[in-house]
Amino acid sequence: ERPVSMPSTRKPIVIGNWKMNGTRESLGEIEALNAGLIKAPAAADVMVCPPATLLSEALTAASTGPATIGAQDCHAEASGAHTGDISAEMIADLGGSGVIVGHSERRQNHGETDAVVAAKARAVWRAGLIAIVCIGETEAERDAGDTLSVLARQIAGSVPEGATAERTILAYEPVWAIGTGRTPTEAEIEDTHGALRKELERHFGAQAMGMRILYGGSVKPGNAAAILPLGDVDGALVGGASLKVADFRPIIDAA
Length: 255
Ligand code: PEP
What we know:
The protein is of the alpha/beta class. Helix content is 40%, strand content 15%. The structure holds phosphoenolpyruvate (PEP).
C-alpha cells in the first residue's frame, strides 16, 4: 500500500468559528491576534470566522495582519429572494477568504443535508473562496460503530466533484465533541484522519495529499499540543476557545 500522508506539503491552518457570539467590541480580539502574529509570526495559517454582522468590520480590523477572515455559512445561490441569507459572492465582495459549510449546528438546526452542503461548497468555489466543509458523526453513530461509514457518506455527499487542495479544507468534527469538553483519544483522531485522507484520495486522487484535514471539537490550549501534531491533522477548527486571543494563540502555536 502506498503512503497516503505527506505532511510537509501541507501548511497547517487554525480556523476560529465564533458562532453566534461577538459584537463590535470583540473586534479588538482580531486586532490583538494580528498584532501578536506580526510580532511573533505563526507557522500556521490563521482564519477567523465571525458572525455575518461583523464581517465587514472584521475585514477592516484584520487588513494589516496575516489572519484572514471567513464566514460561517452562505446560500447556494448568488442572489435572489432568500430573506435573511447571504451569498458567497457577497462574502467575496467584502474580501472574505473562506466559508464554513455544513457545520453540524447547521445540519442539525437548519436541516442541511449533504446535498445542500455540496451546493453551498460549489457556491463558495464559484465566488473564488475556500470551502471549509464540515463532517462528523453523532454519539449514537459512534456508539453503533458507524463512524467511518458515516464520514465516508458525508464526504461522498458534501464534498463536490472537482475539489482541489487549494480551495477545499475538510473539518472533521465529532458532533459529540463540539462544545462538550470531550474529545476522541489521540489514537482515534489519528486513525480517523488517516481514513479520511484515504477516502479523499479515492474521490480526488492526488489532490487529497494537499488537502488540509482539520480536527474540531473542544480543542483548547490544554489539549492542542497533543492533538495538532498527530498524523494527518493539518490544523484545527476551534469554537469556544477562538473567542479570546489568550486561548486562541496557544492553539495556533501548537499547529
Ligand atoms: C465548532 O463549533 O466548530 C467547534 C469545534 O466548537 P468547540 O471548539 O467549542 O467545541
